[in-house]
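Lab manual, section 2.4: Encoding a predicted structure.

Procedure: take the sequence of the chain (71 residues), apply the prediction step described in section 2.3, and record the output as structure tokens. A sample record is shown.
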Amino acid sequence: MEAYRLTVSEKNSLEGVKYDGVQYYNPVQDINDNWFISTQEVDNTTNPECLWVKDLPLENFVPVPPTPPNG
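Recorded output:
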């Protein structure tokens, strides 16, 4: 799966920010501890202060496997 890679500083600047006036960015970490936002978040960004996300590098995102429940 591909997603847009963020630096830690970029991730911090997007936390709590709405990308379209309604929905918030949700940066997530991959298995290699890199931060990403989804293609949908970037595609739907209309916030003028965040249009820079459209220039982020699109890279391979490897999700962290879910932790199995105990028991």
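Check your result against the sample. Helices lie at 8-14, 39-43.
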